[in-house]
Amino acid sequence: MGRNFLRISWWTVNVALILSLLALVYSGVWEYSVRRYLAGFSDAIVPAGATPEKRVEALLDWMRTGPSRSEELGPTGLAMRDPEKTLNYQQLLSVCGTATNAFLNLARSSGLQVRRLLLLTPDRQAKHVVAEVQLNGRWILVDPTYRVILRNNAGEMVTRSDLKNPRAFAEAIAKIPGYPAEYDYQNYAHVRLGRLPLEGFQLRPVLDHLLPGWDEKVDWSLLLERESFFVLAISACVALLLLLLRQLLAWYADRKWKMPRFHVREHLSRAGSAFFTTPEIK
User: Which of 69, 74, 81, 244 is the S-S candidate for 227 at Cβ 3.0 to 4.6 Å?
Assistant: First the structure.
């Protein structure tokens, strides 16, 4: 019984590993094609040699006054995390989440260090999405939905820490027509774990205790906002776990049950030796 179960497990893991490796190759090609597309798109928008601030302004100007975009009769059918869709459909560039997605993808392709920021209600529900761009060692605030860099009365770019002050926030939005005052910076997050079942399994308090600043130390934006990269990351993790499980099963079969199995490295080594070794002539 034990041997049969081990054989079934061995072949199941091997088949799953092959499928995960194929998925890894597919997602790698997908991510590469997305990066090429975004690089070409951003090169057409951002002037060569522009300063980081000018790059941000160029991207916002394109979002504000660029060429007309397509409109989908049924926008609910659009892929919200596909860069090609978010850059080319008017409805998606008008929604805070997908507008920020488009900005982040282009900004990253332009060599800028960026991340998304969720503005939350007191009960930690998302009410708006903006972007943070690192300029001169500071994470300044950009709102792609309104196509602006947030600034104070002196024209200086501001950070989320600055905007926690209600007075500074009022100054920053005073010159932005129709900007809702409820989009304040009293509560925010880079990752909203509440979207997971059971209110995120109460992971945030645990992660905050074990890994302070965990949501800022990793670029979650790329993982959460680009579908091709998400699939690539998941495929890589699954392939690694299956590879480790395969090694564990192999060790168990060799040491515990002394079962004969197909040794890939051994057969490859023999094949290589037979192919490259010069035959003896007698």
Answer: 81
